[in-house]
Amino acid sequence: MPVITEIEDLRRIYKRRVPKMFYDYCESGSWTEQTFRENSSDFDKLYLRQRVAIDMTGRSTATQMIGQDVAMPVALAPVGMTGMQNADGEIKAAKAAEKFGVPYCLSTMSICSIEDVASNTSKPFWMQVYTLKDDDYMKRLFDRAKDAKCSAAVITVDLQMLGQRHKDLKNGLSAPPKLTPTSIANMATKVPWGLEMLQTKRRFFGNIVGHAKGVTDPSSLTTWTAQSFDQALDWDRIREFRKMWDGPLIIKGIIDPRDALEACNVGADAIVVSNHGGRQLDGALSSIRALAPIMDAVGDKIEVHLDSGVRSGQDVLKAVAMGAKGCWIGRAYIYGLGAMGEAGVTRALEVIHKELDVSMALCGRTDINTVDRDILMIPKGFSGDWEE
């Protein structure tokens, strides 16, 4: 068993174990991938202040996200097709999150359904939804989330249309994977992955197939998906979704302060500063650079979280110091899931927690709730000094 000390260790194992189309789906961005890269590299531009001769005992990373107790300010982000990275992947990730004490958010485009995850876990999870035109489907999706006792709904607002993701197009990404000479040759080298996938019945989009009208197989799913994303989405439409869900609501995909203020006005409980992991508008600002202007705009009107580019506990610490109430991790836990299943997700959370705990202590803080900008050295112009 290899010694896992950092998230990168899990990524290397993951790359060896999972078919190329699913590795590339996770580990890529749109167009030139500038934003995908800068989401991570921009964290490196923030420096930490080390303090000494301060009592480091009695540390705590426990806090709250949308009023829910969490072991550390981290949630597992919604990732489409997680069940293709590892058989029954959504169930395994949700179970690992539950045991660790952090929230799990299920994607609408998951392989395991809401009901699958609910029947295999004991604590409420969060449900992510897209802004689709199909009102009947949307209402029933929210009702299914209520029936599953989901403790928050997450509306993703930055996917009215797909950004061009070159690798996904070239690989012919699909679930289950299309059988072509290239994909068959690649999957033949991933025997453990294949054997596990053969033992599960969950290989399609479990929240859609059999639930959306007319969607009974992969071909009808493709047609429905292409027609369902709402390019006419506006904030009034989001208000309609708010009426469909009376529980805690999180709006994900905010990268501009003006949109953050709009999210406050529709009655959301929290926003996630996110550029969809660099998979939508390439050339957009990284999430960590976009965070401060959004915090300045909304103040304490709404809880602010951050995702995109978080690969370590130090990234979490820096985001919290900049004002975020928590971070969402996607790729970091998918690496673990693809590498080692549920145990890999747990290992990813353990790695991030240790980095967060040790780095916080070396900055002279013993409680994550006391972390602020004083622990950072922020370069001038980090969040932009742009011409009007």
Annotation field: number of helices: 17
Strand order across the largest sheet: 4-11-10-9-8-7-6-5
Domain count, please report it.
1
Mean pLDDT: 94
Uncertain regions spanning at least 5 consecutive residues: none
Helix content: 40-55%
Determine the N-to-C terminus distance: 55 Å
What is the level-2 CATH architecture name? Alpha-Beta Barrel
Tell me the name of the CATH homologous superfamily. Aldolase class I
Task: State the shape.
Answer: globular
For the biggest sheet, the summary is: 8 strands, parallel
Number of β-strand runs:
12
- Measured on Cα atoms, how large is the radius of gyration? 20 Å
Strand content: 5-15%
> H/E series, N to C?
HHHEEEEHHEHEHEHHHHHEHEHEHEHHE
Describe this structure in words.
This protein has helices spanning 7-17, 20-26, 34-41, 82-85, 89-100, 114-119, 135-147, 166-171, 181-187, 191-198, 218-228, 235-244, 257-265, 287-298, 313-321, 331-340, 342-362, and strands at residues 47-48, 63-65, 68-70, 74-76, 105-106, 126-130, 152-156, 249-254, 270-273, 303-307, 326-329, 376-377. Helix 1 crosses helix 16, helix 13 (257-265) crosses helix 14 (287-298) and helix 16 (331-340) crosses helix 17. The N and C termini lie far apart (55 Å). The chain is of the alpha/beta class. The protein has one domain: TIM Barrel. The mean pLDDT is 94. The chain is built from 17 helices and twelve strands. It has an eight-stranded parallel sheet with strand order 4-11-10-9-8-7-6-5. A two-stranded antiparallel ribbon has the order 1-12. Strands 2-3 form a two-stranded antiparallel ribbon. It is an enzyme of class 1 (oxidoreductase). GO terms for molecular function: FMN binding; L-lactate dehydrogenase (cytochrome) activity.
